[in-house]
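chain below, 95 aa
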Amino acid sequence: MLVAAAAVVLLATACSGTGASDTADGASTSGNGDGDAKVVTIGVIAPLDNGLTDFGRGIANSVQLAVDEANERNAIPGYRIAVEALDDSSDPVCG
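prediction:
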């Protein structure tokens, strides 16, 4: 539940009006034909390299899958969703 709430907050605050090109990952936006899509970045902070890595990688992979599916459906017209996964090494003070 906390992860979902954090994703919503990050989604709402990470909107970028830079008009970045969607050629960085190509396949995820190939169906919508919008070359001038704005990018919304969802941040994921989880233990990716130290600590509870199986749990953290599962979170990051799940978010990436959801984002790929949303981009494929053009869930937010005019926007492409990106994921930035960062490692917290299971350290609660990390930030």
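The chain has one domain: 2-87. The two ends are 20 Å apart (CA to CA).
thats it, cya
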